[in-house]
Amino acid sequence: MQLKIALAGNPNAGKTTLFNQLTGARQHVGNYPGITVDHKEGCLLHKNKKITITDLPGTYSMTAYSAEELVARDYLVNEKPDVVIDIVDSSNLERNLYLTIQFLELGVPLVIALNMIDVAKDRGIEIKVEKLSQLLGVPVIPIIARSGFGEKDLLEAAIDTASTSNNGNTTLDISYGKDLDSALPELISLISENNFMTDTYPARYTAIKYLENDEQILKKGRQNNTEIASRLEEIVDKLADHTRKTLDVYPEAIIADQRYGYIKSIIRQGVETHRFDTDRLYTSDKIDKVLTNRLVGPIIMLLIIFGLYQFTFSWSELPITWLESFFGWLGGIVENTLPDGLLKSMIISGVIDGVGGILGFVPLIMFMFFGIAILEDSGYLARVAFMMDRVFRMFGLHGSSVMPFIVSGGIAGGCAVPGVMATRTLRSPKERMATLLTVPFMNCGAKVPVLALLIGAFFAESKALYMFLFTMLAWVVALLAAKLLRTTVLRGDPTPFVMELPPYRFPTIRGLLIHTWERTYQYIKKAGTVILGISILLWALMTFPGLDNEQKGFFKQQRQETISSFSQETVKELDLKSKPSSEEAIALAKKLNTIDNAETEAALRYSIAGRVGRSMESITRFAGFDWRTNIALIGGFAAKEVIVSTLGTAYSMGEVNTEEPESLGERLKNDSNWNRVVAVSALVFIMFYAPCFITVVCIAKESSWKWAFFSIGFNTFFAFLAAVAIYQIGMFFQLG
Amino acid sequence: MQTVVLRNMKKNQSGIIKAVSVGGVLGRRLREMGLTPGTEISVCGRAPLKDPVAIRVLNSILTLRNNEAEHIHVLINNNQ
Questions:
Q1: Could you read off the pLDDT of A491-504 as tens digits, one per residue?
Q2: Pick from A523, A543, A534, A533: which is nearest to A690 by CA?
Q3: Which ipTM was obtained for this model?
């Protein structure tokens, strides 16, 4: 029979390290429906026994106040694993046992893994393992998850516990003080006499949860049996009134105090002894003296963040170029083998560009997550949150929001896709949503060519200054938008910041690699399919319905007329050589090219996207955009850099090199529809309107489609208002 | 002996928690992290902008914002 083991414990207690150690690469990540808490499963063979291990999210308690805690609790109650391995940090026994006590109260078959026993020893902490096991009534196995020490013993103990605890689990009953202890029997008898949720929870556990005012249990109780539920709530209310009057505390506070009291009493029975003074500075504290120093700390932080940025964006450049040339090569093959037509156009522009677009981000995401994994696993990320919290809190965000903002383009040239994914390190749900929705405002690497084009064309005299101003503008707008969201749709008190600064640790290579791979793979798997679909859809929008025969005939006729106006030899020369040399032939090639470009422009104008662009002109003219700009903006939803090439097509410029868009810039500068005010209006719109759909898909995968559509609507609406304001005010003062 | 709130404690000052006077989510969170009456804490330092504050409790380092530290009453020795 297959054995089900669940791993549980405090964050930073080494849960993931043990999980990786036990299962190696045989693991997969799943998501709990509706929420973004990862659920990892792995399997291993131990003495021909197949064991499945589930890594539960790290929690400090089993209350119902965060998604992680609910997931952990529901798993234990609903899935009923054969045994739970509770990972406990040996050098922080007291706090870690708080969760252990709650497992014992729930009555799950438990084995305690006393992790980092070596670190505790270095710190002069001696733990009497047998004594602890005897007092708690469960096996306690000292382990070192990083090295694999104690792993076999742990598995043996787990298998042993699983096989013996099948018939009726015993629960730990601890005393909760005079007031609560006198109320508990009444609650328990009411619960067990009526079989009130007794098939899911032990009666005493339900009673304690009622005293703790646990929202989830209260709600379940009401659904289960309204009458019993209200009688239980009545008893608890009366008791709460009493304790508040006499002791000025709620029962839930008494419960926490008593649990810690119980833990202290266990530890004082000789379980833990200290060889040195507890005030001693550990290595980790010494490092913190420098890294979180009030003056040096922020400077080092800037350097480290800049280093991460450099690492992510410069080092990933080479693999990205490889991928690009691979897809270019693939496109070339299709170009040469397939006959001209819709299928070819769809394969090149829809499929190859689409898949290339997805995979083009892979090196970026891998490098970024590798860098972040180092910062996270070493414990530095928590310090960044600690130092930056004061600033980000002003905008309703969290200290941990800084990383996603930087990665998304806080330093111009980032990318919102890894930025959105980096919000995973945030544990506060509202702050996380606000970060997720505002990071696409930053100037990502794909917006930079557009910025360069327009700034180069209209503000050539001070390019650097304008580039800097627009980067600052992105920050200001993103932070203010976050504030706006946090006071409206994401309104609510800040989630408690209370957070642990874990001791600095050297990350393990294995952990880093698993971390990186897991997140990259999730991106490919989850985003990949959707992105390919949308890419084909956008291709269709810009291709269909195509020019009708009459229009095609018109261009054909023009071509023929042009050719017949030149001599036979010239036409021949052009046919034979790819690079004509005579002046005549060059002139002919130029003319034909102009006609080709005019035809592509006409086709684009005639396509669905073109029609939408033209019909929107009546609205967008308030912001100064004509239909050509509109089409480019629609194309920009595929990827922001597409704006440049689509503008090129719409202005009959043919293929425009994204890297050197000067000729297009000249064209815009001389166009009567464009001037400085229009340029600024367009820049602002492009910076802030709907994120590219790859980002949108990532937002949906990290939250829900509801929020993804919200981000399209909200951003576009906001960007349009800003663009209209700039255009109208600018034109009023004749700044153009 | 004197009671002060954690918010007003200085760096390296230590004492014993007397009361945690907040309920709800924050109260629960503070308690489960080990901030219960009778526990010894000491202030490790503050962030560059003087907020949040880092404290040592039960052999680990916790950080909390000043407005959260306001609810924690600590009994300190006057000699410090």
A1: 988 888 888 898 89
A2: A534
A3: 0.94
